[in-house]
Amino acid sequence: MEIVRHWSFVLLWTWFSCWSWRHLPLALGVVSYVVAIFFIGGRQRALAGVLHQACYGTLMSSTKIGATLGATLAGYPMLQSFTGYRLSHVVNHHGRFGDPQRDPDYLQYQRIGLCGQNLRRERLRKYLLTLAGPRSTLSYIAYLVRHRILHKEEASWERYVRIVGLLTIFVVAGATGWLGVLVAYWFVPLVTTQVWIGAIAELLEHYPLIETAPRVDIYMTWNRHYNPVERFLLGEEEGEGYHLVHHIFPRVPLWRLKEVDAILRRDPAYADLKRPRGLAALSTVFASLPGPEVESAATSA
Predict the structure, then answer these.
(1) Residue 121 in contact with residue 286, Cβ under 8 Å?
(2) Where is the Fatty acid desaturase domain (predicted)?
(3) Which end of the chain is flanked by fewer CB atoms within 10 Å, N or C?
(4) Is 298 a member of any domain?
(5) What is the CB neighbour count within 10 angstroms for residue 80?
(6) Residue 297 lies in a domain
(7) Total structural domains within the chain
(8) What φ, ψ does residue 98 adopt, rounded to 5°?
């Protein structure tokens, strides 16, 4: 089961890093910790993907069981609300896709200054170079808080359950001497590597197509491709890269998106669409933005 696999990976890296601190030289302990929070952040992002599936009712054949498991074992540990995620993503992003005033993803591109007059390579390069800095990190965290953690329309009972559950975990961890481990290996990657991986993943879903392309789903979303090694590094499931397929058929389970993509590729217009590939996927995004010569001409004008 996907949830078990992700949690096993998190626990394995936590154990290995803790073991390294105790039995290896300090420098190697530091290296093991940095590597651990990178991989844990990737699996936290993957758990957010589980919540995503649960909100669409595609995680399991039983939508009620899938929603319960997705919320309690994936969403709540990520501090994310099932109700908030469903409203912001399923209703507002998919339901109002491409609306510059109501699509949360489009609004986030605008908030970080990548739209309008800033729709150019130099601005994207500057954003990526400062992605791990406090301003960009806090901007993405604010996006998560606004739309998925403290959504204004979240059911009061769900917020109560989440708060009580979080407090219980902190109390138990403190009483058993595991609070430091909890903070270091869960909450540190939650506000660092998970945020950075998530921010880049968001770019590779719709940017800059959501602003520059014709107002048709097929042209406003990227399908991206990672090989097994790259998926392992980033914590991505195989079907997660078929984001365009997901937008066209949002009720298709993740594991069947590749099959649907193969069918869609029989259509020449679909088959001709560009696909960001591998760890160099951002190069495709850069190529779709105005180059230096266009920027210089615009400045001169």
Answers:
(1) yes
(2) 32-272
(3) C
(4) no
(5) 25
(6) no
(7) 1
(8) 85, 0
For residues 31 and 29, give the distance between their C-alpha atoms in angstroms, rounded to a whole number.
Answer: 5
Q: What is the DSSP string of 9-74?
A: HHHHHHHHHHHHHHHS-HHHHHHHHHHHHHHHHHHHHHHHHHHHHHHHT-SSSSHHHHHHHHIIII
Closest to 120 measured CA to CA, from 207, 223, 224: 207
Q: Which residue has the tokens 């997901």?
A: 246
CA distances from 120 to 113, 132, 136 (A): 10, 20, 18
Residue numbers of the domain that contains 80: 2-288
The single-letter code of the amino acid at 264 is L
Q: What is the pLDDT of residue 135?
A: 87
From the list 91, 124, 95, 96, the residue with the least C-alpha distance to 109 is: 124
At 135, list the tokens.
């301003």
Residue 300 lies in a domain: no
**Mapping DSSP to helix (H, G, I), strand (E, B) and coil, where does residue 174 land?**
helix
Three-class SS state of 215: coil
Q: Is residue 109 part of a domain?
A: yes
Instruction: Find, among 210, 205, 208, 197, the residue nearest to 222 by Cα.
Output: 205
Per-state percent for the chain, helix, strand, coil, to nearest 5: 75, 0, 25
Which residue type occupies 60? M
Q: Please state at what angle helix 193-206 crosses helix 104-111, rounded to 10 degrees.
A: 110
pTM: 0.92
